[in-house]
Amino acid sequence: MELMDELIDAFLFRSEEMSSVLNVKTGEILIDAPDHLTGEPGIDWDDEEATEDLVIIPQITTSEAYDLMFMFAKEQDPNVAGKLFDALDGRNPFRRFKDKVIMFGIEEKWYEYEKQYAKERILKWLGSLGLSYS
To answer: Which Pfam families does this one have (predicted)?
Structure first.
């Protein structure tokens, strides 16, 4: 898997207990999680020497993910858009949205849309760190 694909996956993965970390020198992506989840100690962020090349990869927020689904729905034909908007209104909007996307056969289109958004956000984030991706 290419580094950009790994960065996109890390960005789209939402977890309060785990985070993905990029080693800016090696390009390696690490997972930082409490030892009760992995059985191994997490990253010791107090060890400045060991962590000087590490940066936490941002994760998409719940509200940002919801807004992304809304933007995607707006770009669909009116019948499909209406059903997607209905799915976003009420309980379990993420599950209901995905179910509708599958039902309408636009799952691949949705994943490409989501991936493109994530790539743009990752490139912007890398730029804010003074890094580039080629």
So the answer is: UPF0158
Q: Going by C-beta distance under 8 Å and a sequence separation of 6 or more, which residues neighbour residue 104?
A: 80, 83
Query: CB of 93 within 8 A of CB of 100?
Result: no
Give pLDDT tens digits for 60-89: 999 999 999 999 999 999 999 999 999 999
For residue 133, is it within any domain? no
Nearest to 114 by CA among 93, 103, 98: 98
Give pairs for 26-33: CB < 8 Å, separation 24+: 26/53, 27/3, 29/3, 29/57, 30/54, 32/56
Sheet holding 29-32, edge to edge: 29-32, 19-23, 54-56
Predicted confidence at residue 40, as pLDDT, reads 81
78 and 117 housed in the same domain:
yes
The 10s digit of each residue's pLDDT in 28-61 is: 999 998 888 888 888 888 888 889 999 999 999 9
Return the closest-CA partner of residue 122 out of 67, 43, 55.
Answer: 55
pTM: predicted TM-score of the whole model, two decimal places: 0.89
Q: Are residues 11 and 33 in the same domain?
A: yes
